[in-house]
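Milestone M4 deliverable, item 7.
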Amino acid sequence: MNNSQIIETLKSVLHLKKEPVALKAWKEEPSSVEKYQGNAFPGLCTQIGEVLEGKKTFYTTLEHCFCTGGVVATGVAEPVPEEQRDEMIQVHASISKTYKDFATAVGYENEMAKRIPRVAGSNAALQVGLLRDIQQPDLVLIFCTPGAADIINRAYCYVTGEPVQGFGGNGGCPFIIQYPFVTKKPSFSYSDVAWRKYIGLADEELSMGFPYACLVEFIDELPAVADAYRKYGEPVEE
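Output delivered:
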């Protein structure tokens, strides 16, 4: 199944209101892809929002993102040193009610380090665009309702026999990008205020991150699984 067929299957079966977004890490900055212009605040979530609003595919690097979550999540940047991390915590605390105190914030970051594996190796750039514009991406981001997420989760479990990991906390990039990028397994999250605001998620939408290879593995089964899901509990025809 090619990208166009994957997109049509996802949209028709899950009734998506947003196009699937793709991410692709590059070892060298790609000459065939436009470089992002300017500085995105907070960072990758804003760039994803721009793509959903019609901006063509582009690649981004550390220099284009105030928040480093997305580029760290894909190996384009190293995790920030503790001193810089602490400064960013202070900035976030000044614009939102994130933690009751600094010690709580540091404790959260330490707990996250245990749960989200670090990226091995490095990349030079991250391409961002709609799935229709990127061939063989690393990840596909799907924005959908919980009901649709349950259906796609069941299709994945039907084929692989594995559960899908979900996360709650502060952040979108670690949960929906870094975890699937490193583990090669899907994840889902309602994410956080910045991710939701700058991507433009409705209250009823959450985010799922699928390695492209995972999506290809079960997408053929999605229509049949969805049909059975929606008929659950009905009398079985003899």
